Amino acid sequence: MRTKKLAELAKTIRSKNAGTDKITFDIIFREEENYKLVKESKQITKEKIAQLFGISKERICDFVEFDPAYAIKFTILRSTPSGSPGEGDIFGCQQYPPLLDIEIPIE
Amino acid sequence: MRKAELRIICPNGHLGFAPTKEESFKIGVATYPDYYCCDSGSDDIGPAPLGADKSVSMYEWQKHDLELMLLASREQGVPMIIGSAGDTGSNSRVDLYVQIIKDLAQKHNIPKFKLAYFYSEVNKEYLREQMEKGIVIEGLDGRGKLTIEDLDKTDRIVAVAGVHPYIKALEMGADVIIGGRSSDCAIFAAPAIKEGFPENLSYYLGKVLECASFCAEPYGAKESVIGIITDHDVKVTAMHPDQRCTVASVAGHAMYERSNPYYEFFAGGMLDMTNCKYEQYDEKTCKITGPEFVPVNGKVKIKLEGSGKIGEKYIGIAGIRDPYTISNIDKVIEWVKEQVEERYQDIKYHLNFRIFGKNGVMGELEPVKDIKSHEICVIVEGIAPTKKLAEEITLMGTRQIFYARLPEVKGTAGTAAFIVDEVLPASSAYMWTMNHVIPVDDPMEFFDVKLIEVGE
Question: ipTM value of the model?
Answer without folding.
Answer: 0.94
